[in-house]
Amino acid sequence: MHIHRYEKLWLIIGSLILLVFLAILAIQTFYLEMGPPSHAEMMDPQEVRESELFADAELTEIGDNEYEIAIVAEMFAFQPGDLEIPAGATVHFTLASPDVTHGFKITDTNVNVMVVPGHISKVSHTFHEAGEYLILCNEYCGLGHEFMANTITVN
Amino acid sequence: MTHITDVPIRHKGKAVTAGAIAGISKRDSRLSIANLSIAFIALVIGGAAGLLQGFVRSGFLELPSWISYYALLTAHGVLLVLVLSSFFSIGYLYAGTSRVLGGLADKTVAFGWAGFGLMTAGTVIAAFFILSGDANVLYTFYTPMQANPWFYVGLALLVVGILLNCVGMFITYQSWRKRNPGELTPLFAFFSNAVFVLWVFASLFIAVFVVGMVIPWAFGWVPTIDPMIGRTMFWAFGHTLVNIWMLTSISAWYVSMPKIIGGKVFSDSLARVAVVILVVANVPGGFHHQILDPGLSVELKFLHVIQTFMIIFPSLMTAFAMLATMERAGRTKGVTSLLGWWKILPWSDARFFALIVAMLAYIPAGLGGIINASNQVNQVVHNSIWVTGHLHLTVGTTVMLTFFGISYWLIPYLSGRKMTKTINRLALAQTVVWASGMLLMSGAMHFNGLLGSPRRTANTTYNGHSAASDWALYEMLMAMGGVILFIGILLLVYIWIQLAFIAPKGDTDFPIGEDYNKKDASPLFMDRWAIWVALATLSIAIAYVIPLLDFASGHSPGSPPFLMP
Predict the structure, then answer these.
(1) No. of H helices and E strands in chain A?
(2) Using the beta-carbon criterion (under 8 Å), do B292 and A36 form an inter-chain contact?
(3) Nearest C-alpha neighbor of A103 from the set A58, A71, A126
(4) pLDDT number for residue B283
(5) Which of A13, A44, A47, A101 has the fewest Cβ atoms within 10 Å of its own Cβ atom?
(6) Span B86-119, pLDDT tens digits
(7) Bridge-based pairing state of the strands A149-154 and B145-146
(8) pLDDT in tens, chain A (155 residues)
(9) B138: left (phi over 0), alpha (psi -120 to 50) or beta
(10) Sign of torsion, CA B40 B46 B50 B55?
(11) Spatial strand order in the sheet of A102-106
């Protein structure tokens, strides 16, 4: 099998670029902890609404401008509804679905995670800029999918 | 009717010389024509659904109450990515394999028709339940959303039909090898076999999932289902499907394009290496669709990112081989200037023009794919309409334009007609129309996705939210692109009808390129598919054993069904 000199060069350069690219991804993932949300914890979808974690959940301050909230993603709403937080606040979201698979996306941020029934998803974000952010479901979840949205207002 | 063993010509060497067998037996051609006919019907109906979606999403059109946006979306996905691509690849690969191996084996034709029957029945059943509004689950049919159980039966029949076609192809391939000991199979047959090996891997995942899990659950025999196992099995199938289209497409780039431009295959052996890497490394790529899923560890996801990136290597090889083929063709015609070979390519030959535009589209399409698969970067684009834009560049532009280009020689080859100058001009125009429609629509989708607009969502202003109002402009551009694309489909239908029934009778060849360097043969073990299947199984095991065992033993409570609608 003969490989042309130029092809060797092309493939070596291409592979090196690929390796550098992978190395950057690895550094971001493992040293800067920018990896994608990957929480592993299970919960029976039929018990989500009554569970201690999700029933009557509300925004709770757990530290200096640090909050947590448990949100039920269901057909076709996020419960509880619209949220309000001060600028600079870090919010830890805990999510679960009692029915089908949903998506949890906050526009103008990188918050984007799947909510698969049976699993609990977690994602955190610090809201530096004031404004009204749109939270929407970005995984098709049924005929009312396009109505599944909330806002989070940062003052 | 010619029995395969009656054909006197035995092809020596790696690439079958042009004209060795220019024709195709009526028996083999009927099978291909049947498959292609269904593919074309799927394109027209699926394309029309796409056009309507563009109008609905941009707010130009409100659908009557008996059909939802999501039914159209399901029809668009199932008919185009599943039905069109499978029927077309079977029709095309069976015809080409018959051409290079001197006819299909008797059993192959029997398996082919049985497969065709099951696939067609499955398609009709699935399409019926989609259009009657009983299967608004999209082509990914993520459980625990549930469609009418017979929709899944339709899908299962389609997949079993594909598996029968795989068996058919393997029979002809292996019987040729037995009759030609010590010889390499022709490159086209090698590609063809590779595509059907991938179909087997893809089909097994989806068949186990649909038949073993979804159907018992949909009929109510089993109360719950584990959605994560479903997502994982679906994408093992779904992403393999992507490489099935790609491998089918690049078979035309590697084998037919050189002949069309008056050159030769740049390197038969390196083409085979690229094919083998695609087959071995492909299936685990499915995991990059699950980068934002819960229940999979960061380390495991990174392993899958590495496995996905292995697919990039054969694409680099393909990029080099295509340009090298074109340059060599020009050099042998006496071109000495640096880029003169590019200018003298047969730009006015629609077969070539469609292929090269497809190749050019593959550059941004591939780059977008690398972005999507880049672990944390995926958070920026996941499930945004950027991904829809990416799909329309890869399958919508690269694969479709290649299929259209193939049809410009395949249809007249099968119908015993010739392309006229007028049809050729129309086909050139079709390519320009299609590429511009996709550029506009897919470009708008990419930008809109970066602004956060979700994919697979009907028209909504999210209560007049300012973020959503920024998307309106792009949604209008998407609809305009959709209109241009539908004009492209109408043009194409006209061309196909001409080539199939009206164009003057004559001999059209199925272009098969010869190897540039006869001495540079591949080792014979390249044809021993047991090796590649074993390596592919190993790479699948590395990717899938841990997560699937994890889900299966994780005492998942499971989900009851939620009927759609």
Answers:
(1) 1, 10
(2) yes
(3) A71
(4) 79
(5) A13
(6) 999 999 999 999 999 999 999 999 999 999 999 9
(7) unpaired
(8) 678 888 899 999 999 999 999 999 999 999 998 999 999 999 999 999 999 999 989 999 999 999 999 999 999 999 999 999 999 999 999 999 999 999 999 999 999 999 999 999 999 999 999 999 999 999 999 999 999 999 999 99
(9) left
(10) positive
(11) A83-85, A149-154, A131-136, A102-106, A112-115
| Cβ-based neighbours of B254, under 8 Å, separated by 6 or more | B187, B191, B265, B271, B318, B321, B513
pLDDT for the residue B7: 41
Q: Point out the residues of chain B with pLDDT beneath 50.
A: 1-21
pLDDT of residue B22: 54
Q: What is the pLDDT of residue B517?
A: 67
Single-letter amino acid code for the residue at B312: I
- HSE-CB at B479 with a 13 A cutoff on CA atoms is 16
- Give the residue from B226, B292, B307 with the most A CB atoms within 10 Å of its CB, the best one to mutate: B292
Closest in B294, B320, B457 to A145, CB measured: B457
Hey, which residues 80-119 in chain A have their CB within 8 Å of chain B?
Answer: 99-101, 103, 105, 107-108, 110-119
- Extended beta strands in B54-198, E state: 145-146
Cβ B383–A141 below 8 Å, yes or no?
A: no
Residues 6+ apart with CB under 8 A from A97: A45, A48, A72, A73, A74, A115, A116, A117
Give every CB contact of residue B175 below 8 A, 6+ residues apart in sequence.
B4, B105
Q: Are B162 and B190 in contact (CB under 8 A)?
A: no
Q: Given B227, B305, B565, which is nearest A25 (Cβ)?
A: B305
**Cα separations (Å) of A8 from A12, B316, B320, B325?**
6, 11, 10, 16
Give the pLDDT score at B556. 78
Cβ neighbours around A25 below 10 Å, total: 21
Helix, strand, coil % in chain B, rounded to nearest 5? 70, 0, 25
Residue of B nearest to A40 (CA): B295
Nearest CA-CA distance, residue B522 and chain A, Å: 6
DSSP sequence for B207-232:
HIIIIIIIHHHHTTSSS-B-HHHHHH
- Tell me the pLDDT tens digit for each residue of B9-23: 444 333 433 333 457
Can you tell me whether residue A105 is helix, strand or coil?
strand
Does the bond joining A80 to the residue before it have cis omega, within 30 degrees of 0? yes
ipTM for the complex shown: 0.95
Distance from CA of B412 to the nearest CA of A (A): 36
Instruction: Judge: B558–A14 Cβ closer than 8 Å, yes or no.
Output: no
Set of chain A residues whose Cβ sits within 8 Å of the Cβ of B378? 36
Task: Name the strand (E) or helix (H) holding A69.
Answer: strand A66-74
